[in-house]
Structure formats: C-alpha cells, structure tokens
Design a protein that fits this description.
By secondary structure, the protein is α/β, with parallel strands linked by helices. The chain folds into two domains: 118 residues, 3-Layer(aba) Sandwich (Rossmann fold), CATH 3.40.50; 93 residues, Winged helix-like DNA-binding domain superfamily/Winged helix DNA-binding domain (Arc Repressor Mutant, subunit A, Orthogonal Bundle), CATH 1.10.10. Helix content is 41%, strand content 22%. The strands form three sheets. It has a five-stranded parallel beta sheet, sandwiched between helices. The chain has a four-stranded antiparallel beta sheet with strand order 6-7-8-9, covered by helices on one side. The chain has a three-stranded antiparallel beta sheet with strand order 10-12-11. Helix 1 crosses helix 5, helix 2 packs parallel to helix 3 and helix 4 runs parallel beside helix 8. The N and C termini lie far apart (44 Å). 33% of the residues are buried.
Length: 226
C-alpha cells in the first residue's frame, strides 16, 4: 500500500519539485498551501508523514505542528528558511522529528522521508514484540507506549529514543550513538537536539523518567530495574 504524504508549502516551485520526486518513488502525495488547509486535510486523511514549512499563510507551521501533536505521532519534517539553531530546537520541542533547511536538495529531502518511513514501518526482528520496565510498556507492532496502563503520545523520534535506551538497559549510550541511530551519520545538527527530545520524553514519562539517567558529558542510560 502506498504511503500517504502531505506537503505543506506555499512556494509553488518548491512544492511541485518535492511532489514530483515523491510521486516518482510511488508515494501518494497531498498538498496544502497554508496551515489552515493542512489541518483540514489532516482531519480528513490518515497520513504516514508530513512535510511542513514553518512560514505559512493563515496558520504558521509551529501552530500546525503543535495541533497535530495533540492527537498524532505521524512523523513530521519541518522545512525552514532560517538558519537560527534556536528555531530548529523549537521545532523539536513542539514534536518535529527532523528538519531540512531551505533551499534544500530534493534527493536529501527524499532520503529523510525514506529514513523516517522505513524506521516507522520496519519490524524489529532482533527484539521481542514488547518491552516493559516498572510500568513502562512498549508494543512494537502498534508503536504504542503505556505508563501504568495509560497510553502516552510519543513522537516517532521519542519512541525511537526510548526503545533504543530500553533495549540497551544498563549500558551508557552516547549522544553520538543516539544521533547515528535516529538520524544517521549524515545528520550534522547540534547534539542539543538530543537533549530536547530527552527532556520531552521525560516529561511524558512522568515519575517513570527516573529510569533515564544523564551521564555527564557522555550521554544517557536506561537504568536496570531493582
């Protein structure tokens, strides 16, 4: 079945170029030219990935991302013409999974799309179908996480970080290892990105966040249960 991708971009040329590349790869592509239309399409269709520009008419990309994250874990790639690192970190704080700076190379954007979709769709054959630790339970088949029986809404990236740490329980995972695992070696962003995702993840885990320890100047570790 074709993956459904929503492109939210008000610049016609950029939107058409991205659409053409995605269609050649057999993706089913939907388009929105402003944030209001994007949210309407999001309510109507079940998308597998969203490519979202920040500077949009009517409703900006930040607000669109924030509203989508209230109900959905769909992977979101933010498009930004800004080079300010704080803008990028703000996008991750809102729940974006990746970002691409404009002007961008369409093959690079396509590679990011493929990576997120492959990661979302693959079955982890090296692990059990579920993971659990002191009230945290993970179901890989449905990509859901529960804390004390209650569902928590993790983004794609937060899910990947949590499961990677849990699968390596008791082992210190460096920030570089997390970046390589989540984004691949081509990622060249600041490692504060990881800190932002970890902070969001801890907030959602509530009192279970105690299991994720920060190893100063190194990375993180999911502690062994007592």
């Amino acid at each position: 079945m074709q993956s459904k991708i929503l492109i939210v971009e008000d610049e016609t040329i950029l939107r058409e170029i991205a659409k053409d590349y995605l269609i050649k790869e057999k993706y089913e592509v939907y388009e929105a030219t402003d944030g209001e239309h994007a949210l309407a399409l999001f309510e109507e269709y079940l998308f597998d990935l969203i490519i979202l520009d920040i500077m949009l008419p009517k409703v900006d990309g930040w607000s669109v991302c924030r509203k989508i994250r209230k109900t959905s874990t769909v992977p979101i790639i933010m498009l930004t013409a800004r080079v300010d690192e704080d803008d990028t970190l703000h996008g991750f704080e809102l729940g974006a999974d990746d970002y691409v700076t404009k002007p961008y190379s369409p093959p690079i954007l396509l590679a990011r799309v493929k990576r997120l979709l492959d990661s979302r769709n693959r079955k982890n054959e090296l692990s059990k179908d579920t993971l659990s630790n002191d009230g945290i339970s993970v179901d890989f088949s449905s990509r859901t996480v529960k804390v004390d029986g209650n569902n928590i809404n993790l983004t794609h990236t937060e899910f990947e970080i949590l499961t990677y740490l849990m699968q390596n329980k008791g082992i210190v995972i460096t920030r570089e290892q997390l970046i390589s695992k989540i984004w691949g070696y081509e990622y060249n962003g600041d490692d504060r990105t990881i800190n932002t995702h970890i902070r969001n993840l801890r907030t959602k885990l509530g009192n279970k966040s105690k299991w994720i320890s920060t190893i100063i100047r190194t990375g993180y570790k999911f502690e062994e249960s007592l």
